Amino acid sequence: MHVVRPAAAAAAAFLGLALGLLGGTASSAASGAPGTPVAPATAQKRFLGPVVYAHRGASAYAPENTVASIDRAAWMGFAWVENDVQRTRDGELVVIHDDTLARTTDVEQVFPDRKPWAVKDFTAAEIARLDAGSWFGPQFAGARVPTLREYMDRVQDNGQRLLLEIKKPELYPGIEEQTLELLDGLGWLDAQHVADRLVVQSFSADSVRTVHRLRPDLITAFLGTPSVADLPEYARFTDRINPLHTTISADWVKAVHGLRGAHGKAMEVDTWIVNDAATARKVREMGVDGVISNAPDVVREAVGGF
């Protein structure tokens, strides 16, 4: 398997610089009660451009959610990567986006009689047999679906930060607690990681609420575009609202920024999936805090950011 790895010292130096310039993950606004307005004088301002998140790793250049993809993001100098977490039949947490293995692996050839090839119907050992790279390009033949433990080890080695999505939690009862237990065992729930290296998000408001209840110190994000009227309710259990870029406006972003989130600081907006320069410039003008992209280098060249 061809894996692009950065020179360790150079990657660590660049990412260290980026992390230092960006500071913590939460807004710098003064703390207050969740759901209360933020005074205009304390509104967050970014001078380095929005934070750029490598979506499923640098997935325009390497197979999504693989070690090769996060290595490529590190090689390109991106501190933040995003992933998706699901669970196997025998209880192993794995990093894959779809709830079926069909699109990004050779499961149909290896297990032709197991349609619809749902992640939850396969053991970790069976999934480990699959090729998760050849669909993207022959140079990635042999790439595997990583377990969350394997993935976290590489993120740690690369000195990166993680935007972790709990995917389809309705299929995996208890996945929030299991994910947090694994992260805790790997040292990712200590004060330093919680402060500025980890955000947990989901499309499920109930899942985000659960994470906030289990670990109220963690930064959380809800994936979606709630109405302005509903934002105060979300502010009780989350710090960020992360919407699809086609669903937002500058006024909506301003409304999110105008409320304090679960940690009493101005709520933030990280929008997805932005892969072209024109859209990157458009959402920057809307005032978003972060941009989630398959092609993070395109976004960085257009609007700055790390």
Description:
The protein is α/β, with parallel strands linked by helices. Helices cover 33% and strands 14% of the residues. Helix 2 packs parallel to helix 5 (148-158) and helix 11 crosses helix 12. The chain starts with 7 loop residues before the first helix and ends with a helix. It has 12 helices and 9 strands. The protein has an 8-stranded parallel barrel with strand order 1-2-4-5-6-7-8-9, surrounded by 6 helices.
Which features characterize this protein?
single chain; 306 residues; 9 strands; 33% helix; globular; disordered N terminus
Task: List the uncertain runs.
Answer: 1-10, 17-29, 41-46
Number of helices: 12
Gross morphology is globular
Largest beta-sheet details: 8 strands, parallel, barrel
Mean pLDDT: 90
Number of E-type strands: 9
Strand percentage:
5-15%
Strand order of the largest sheet: 1-2-4-5-6-7-8-9
Span from first to last CA?
28 Å
